[in-house]
Amino acid sequence: MTGMAALQQAGHLTVAGASKRFGAALVLDDLSLAVAKGEFVSLLGPSGCGKTTLLRCIAGLLRPDAGHISVAGRDITTLPAHRRNVGVVFQNYALFPHLTVAENIAFGLRAQGVSKSESAPRVAEALALVRMTEHAGKPVTALSGGQQQRVAVARALVVRPSLLLLDEPFSALDRKLRETMQVELKHLLREVGITAIFVTHDQEEALVVSDRIAVMNAGRIEQLADPATLYGRPASLYVLDFVGQSTRLAGQVTEAAGGMLAVQTALGPVRAPGQFAPGSRVVVAVRPEAVVLGEAAENRIAARVREVSFLGSRTQLHLDLPEEGEDRGVVELPRLPEGIGPGSAVTLAFREADTMVFPAP
Amino acid sequence: MERLGLGIAWTALVLVILFLLLPIVVVIPVSFTEATVFRFPPEGFSLQWYAKIRNVDGLLGALWLSARIAALATALSLLLGTLCAIALVRGAVPGAAAITTFMVSPLMLPGLVLGIALLQAAREVGLRDAWWSLLLAHVVITMPFVMRTVLGSLSLFDFAMVDAARTLGCSYPVALWRVLVPNILPGFVSGALFAFIASFDNYPVSMFLVDVRTKTLPIQLLNYLEISPDPTLAAVSTGLIGLTVLVLILCDRLVGLRRMASI
Ligand SMILES: Nc1ncnc2c1ncn2[C@@H]1O[C@H](COP(=O)(O)OP(=O)(O)OP(=O)(O)O)[C@@H](O)[C@H]1O
Ligand SMILES: [Mg+2]
């Protein structure tokens, strides 16, 4: 129980050792998480890794088989959903089609017995907050996707929840609108000063909206860190692959001394900081933008370009790698030098300090 | 060829509509006849057969009994049927598909068989009271109609709304009441309508359960027809048609017939 106490100290929301089984499937596997007051945390992971399940446990819509959940120092593990005061924005918003925009927003206030005279100004305030005042009398079925999302957010916020959970709030919006709404929602929630957890399986979205990102894998959190750390110092190959792209090469440690490793890869020797015994099978990796053409850094490899993708502000080179399998090569350049195209032979350089080493899977 | 085919289909449609409507249309003028026999076209105009309804022994009583049984059976079916439907849709009931089929098929047994079986069962458990046996039997009759429409509405209902209501401060039963019920109201209304009618004009099941003092309207009407086949029956039928039209208009106002028909 001391672990629980320590976690509680650390966070506004704490999940300690939560497990949940559906039949034979272990969907949450002894998962722990602490979120500070006012913080935005994303739960990022592939479909089926348990993100929604974790959210439903926190909201009280599901009871975990084991573990504890507490908010603001109070254990709420066994508290029913309607007494938790945890706001939820559902994936398809789950607005009430039989009610107008204003009635949807007033729903929670009415359910909690707030008087008409007190609820009217609060609904008006919430409508103004999400810029929906002029649509107050419309049925929610007459709204666009972005407007529906705003109503869902206002409906959840108007009851002043201690925590806001958002399950893929942008997945129903088209790409352009999604990018606008991500920034808008982040700004709005910051203004309100609420603690929020976003669920997403889109890594770019996670990077945009969150202070910290929890990368989930099969019911566990692989790494919980701020976006820069997650990207720059991924804790595992899984996180490396899930967040951003990389050039990664399988290899074997040939030398280990003073925290530096020499690794033999299919494209030649590479040096990187790390702690592995000589002979270990490892994977070395480097982020695309840490690679330059030429010889301007310690590590150099020769490769052949397979494909070039122009992305507007930058250009990606996909390298031809000699071995089939786990190896992959993505390099990003601010602009493509003359004479380089599919089939070109190039020399790539990257700094030892930017090179990461992971145990081979 | 296509025009010919369509022409045949059109003709069929017109004929079938006539065939469906004619008996209903014929009964209305006959109810206003001056003649003492049930004959079309009617002769003259009088309201005597309407006046006579009150004087026929047991007719109004039977009407009242049928109305009460149908209303109570429908209400019970709505409550129980909705709970069963929620369990089937959400409760991970083993064999839910088979149970659903069973509960939705309107009276897979012929009414006769059901009537005899219910009579036997009532006897076995010592239920001798005709009123109670009729009510229970009519719950059995109405349940499939309610189940069918309620299950139909539930399959279109997004239960995330119930979750949303819960996170906003409603307990589970309150969330069902405030979110589920208003959203499946069309299903309720059309289910209730079908159920009420099925109960109201049921003959084969009720036949086994009535006694001398407790007779439902269809049974009383048929008895009367055997004794004196005069246009009183047309008057009663016309009254029922009027009532049905009234109810349909009310339903239309309440939820819209289109919404009901689509379920
Ligand atoms: N009520 C349930 N009964 C049985 N299995 C369930 C239930 N809810 C979820 N699961 C299973 O648990 C696993 C995790 O589900 P969950 O919805 O938490 O995933 P997710 O990470 O939110 O995925 P997605 O990105 O697709 O929404 C899935 O394999 C799912 O099939
Ligand atoms: Mg999900």
UniProtKB/TrEMBL annotation, chain B:
- What are the ABC transmembrane type-1 domain coordinates in residue numbering? 63-251
- Which superkingdom, per the lineage? Bacteria
Record carries keyword DNA repair: no
Give the subcellular location: Cell inner membrane; Cell membrane
Transmembrane segment boundaries: 7-32, 69-89, 96-119, 131-154, 175-200, 232-251
The alphabetized UniProt keywords are: Cell inner membrane, Cell membrane, Membrane, Transmembrane, Transmembrane helix, Transport
A Pfam short name: BPD_transp_1
Membrane protein topology class: Multi-pass membrane protein
Output the InterPro entries linked to this UniProt entry.
MetI-like (IPR000515), MetI-like_sf (IPR035906)
**Into which family does the record put it?**
Belongs to the binding-protein-dependent transport system permease family.
Q: What name has this protein been given in UniProt? A: ABC transporter permease
Origin organism is Paracraurococcus ruber
